[in-house]
Specification:
Largest sheet: 8 strands, mixed
Helix content: 10-25%
Length: 175
């Protein structure tokens, strides 16, 4: 019976890898992060999947390979469209009890996004976060663009952001 558990775990990992490689097994390969100073500006380049961290007008670190909404090209207009919003926002809430490993909420929707959606008789959506991986994922990182419009990073990266990014920090999301 003791031998069955490791074999079942190995079979589960192999099934994940064979079924399209949904999960990257990154143990130990997550980049080492520098100690970050207070971050007052975050610039996300959707096309490059990069997140630049700025402090006092100086670029201090770039995170590569961020995940976006599952339909990332273009501006977010409606709830459920899978797009990550573009524009200038602020961090307006920190959630330590999220379904993802820590999360920092963007102040989306702004007045223009709300007005546009309302004119179409739709909701602009909301609850857009920079967050870590799902809490059920104990190891690794989901591959590709998989969120509903949020920006996902590794758990190590969100922990570094959690320590360095205060409420009110500016977030610019560019195409």
């Amino acid at each position: 019976m003791a031998m069955r558990r490791p074999l079942l775990a190995l079979a589960g990992v192999l099934l994940l890898l064979v079924a399209g490689g949904t999960v990257w097994l990154l143990r130990g390969s997550d980049p080492d992060l520098p100690d970050l100073p207070r971050i007052d500006r975050i610039v996300i380049h959707k096309g490059a999947r990069d997140m630049q961290l700025w402090s006092g007008g100086r670029l201090v670190h770039t995170m590569h390979g961020v995940a976006l909404g599952n339909a990332p090209v273009g501006q977010k207009h409606f709830e459920g469209d899978g797009k990550t919003p573009e524009g200038r926002y602020a961090i307006d809430f920190r959630n330590g009890e999220s379904s993802y490993h820590l999360s920092l909420r963007l102040s989306y929707p702004d007045a223009a996004a709300s007005a546009f959606a309302q004119a179409q008789g739709r909701s602009p959506g909301g609850e857009i976060y920079i967050h870590g991986q799902p809490n059920w994922l104990k190891l690794g990182r989901l591959k590709g663009d998989w969120t509903q419009g949020c920006v996902a990073v590794s758990n190590k990266e969100i922990e570094a952001l959690w320590r360095a990014v205060p409420p009110g920090a500016v977030v610019e999301v560019l195409p």
